């Protein structure tokens, strides 16, 4: 196991990365102000891992309230959140009861937001069970639920007391979900670390085959980079926007196809291709760099071609993005492989050329 | 106008207190990151004051989205909060749109919580229109909505960027609501300032008659004391509990009679009497001090006798209080008039004697 330390102005917390951490109650105990927790999970993850975590905690004398929610992004809503509040209030959970999220990003986002709001703030621990949650959503303190009019529109910045990323939990993850998580891993390489990018090119086959050591290294480097950026900009006013590489295009794909048609990570994969293509269009990266990007995204099992939404739909969906400032489109683009920058004055013609270019599929209907 | 400065570890903001402040857009403009605001108010306050605030802002070039909610504590719910989110999202309000609460504590608590959650945090300004909101709920950053299983159970600590307390708005406040606000004013005198308590004894008639100067002084001193306590303990882990003087008993009255039968401030009035009686029972304040307390509460137009809930119901409702730590009853009691302390080892017999004593009405059915 290795432990990273995320330091923020008001708080700091450990990110533990390793194997078989689920059974180790000692990673959790130091963070409990009271020997009472609620484990929030879903109907898919509960049969796989709830008993182990609950058993380890109970053996250490901790009272456990399990809260099992329905599975799916469609349930990342106020109504589901309310199931958490109902369970907590029915069991008279006090403000010091710790909420433990055991699941992917959906469970992590909802549990974190529930913890942020329950009696104005209960302690919270993340046990991410998807690769995406381990490298992205569990680190950094963004929590949210969806609103019918927009994804992640209602939420809070609220930091966990600890993150426990157990590589062995990824053994049961569907392959598509693993690839989706790899999209975010590739993102870190592209946006800020050329060496890590090269390591990913050399090791993508091991990652896709779920080699625990390779995964642990990828999670570690991803978390380090995210922690570093979050520490500089907890409330997302500046540099944190770099983490949105591929996401402005990606969100448009998700919205354009209807959320759920593609996984988020798949949309980010194709979105990063478009961001790279736009960077190439602006003369920042060359054709070889573009080809390297494409090979890596493909090796992760991700799409490298976005669906053909039509230029109007692209612009419409991109302008709905939460990152829009005073109506202006902002992109995260690549100055080089391993070096991203925030750009809000992209020439409309350059964008149009990319949206009419080879990284948009024209052969398939959606 | 006088301006207090509330300094917290992460933020500071002004509390403006005076007359005819509603028409002065200059108190608001410096706090707007974008010339766009949503004014959240209710069906009672909107006809009285919305046009004035909206007009002043529009004249200064600010785009205004008015959001008028139904009036009443019964609407302090997620469903009503969602009306705010719906309106913001329908008008494509960005994360920098400022939410202005124009109303009493219900509007302030809901608007603050909506601002805390909207896109994980939008700017927020308080324009409190009840005395209670001016001296209590608008200052300190507690926001919340109710849950069917408990009041204020879901919320956030979230600070406004400014508080604007205009005494002239109190002219239209129902007398019962004015008295309810005075309960919290008396609370500040009792818990920490014997001089202010003496000033209140001398000036209660002017306050009840809504003399603007007297009100401004009372609001100022109350806000100073609250700001002071909040600055020491923003997240309510210690000294902030002093602000709950009268509230453990008061909440039991509200819960026991059914919320809404008595106003919160009325319950706090009778609750402070019981806290004073318990302090007397423990030998901390003498009979003369108890009598002074009673005269002041009565002069504010507040009940000095609590309803007879029965000992079991008292204990049951008090143990539901959010301030309970690990199942233990905590009281805020008076070491002297003007000096409160937190006590969690009150002898059950002393409590029983108070609950069987003269400050409980036995003559009326509820
Ligand atoms: N907070 C943030 O900073 C942040 C960042 C990125 C994404 N997100 C959010 O994260 C969510 C996506 O997260 P996700 O990709 O983890 O999706 P997810 O939580 O829906 O998990 C994907 C699927 O895998 C299942 N699953 C989880 N762990 C498993 C395991 N170990 N074995 C077998 N199945 C398992 C889940 O039940 C689900 O069916 C979105 O809601 C997104 O908005 C948040
Ligand atoms: N956040 C905190 O720290 C805190 C502290 C104390 C109380 N509270 C909350 O505050 C709420 C109570 O606040 P409140 O006492 O202001 O009640 P309220 O907001 O319900 O207002 C009382 C009534 O007066 C009306 N009103 C408001 N201003 C008026 C005006 N100028 N003229 C005429 N009518 C007016 C309102 O529409 C309402 O009908 C409760 O929900 C309580 O939980 C919060
Ligand atoms: Zn992402
Ligand atoms: Zn009160």
UniProtKB/TrEMBL annotation, chains A, B:
EC number(s) given by UniProt: 4.2.3.4
Residues annotated for Zn(2+) binding in this entry: 184, 247, 264
Pathway in which the depicted protein is active: Metabolic intermediate biosynthesis; chorismate biosynthesis; chorismate from D-erythrose 4-phosphate and phosphoenolpyruvate: step 2/7
Pfam family, one: DHQ_synthase
Record's cofactor remark: Binds 1 divalent metal cation per subunit. Can use either Co(2+) or Zn(2+).
Presence of keyword NADP: no
Gene Ontology CC entries for this record: cytoplasm
Binding site for NAD(+): 71-76, 105-109, 129-130, 142, 151
Primary localisation category: cytoplasm
Family annotation (Gene3D superfamilies): 3.40.50.1970, Dehydroquinate synthase-like - alpha domain
Entry keyword set: Amino-acid biosynthesis, Aromatic amino acid biosynthesis, Cobalt, Cytoplasm, Lyase, Metal-binding, NAD, Nucleotide-binding, Zinc
Annotated 3-dehydroquinate synthase C-terminal domain residues: 181-324
Cofactor: Co(2+); Zn(2+); NAD(+)
GO biological process: amino acid biosynthetic process; aromatic amino acid family biosynthetic process; chorismate biosynthetic process
Keyword Cytoplasm assigned: yes
Domain of life according to the entry: Bacteria
Family under the similarity heading: Belongs to the sugar phosphate cyclases superfamily. Dehydroquinate synthase family.
HAMAP family for this protein: DHQ_synthase
The protein, known as: 3-dehydroquinate synthase
Organism, scientific name: Crenobacter luteus
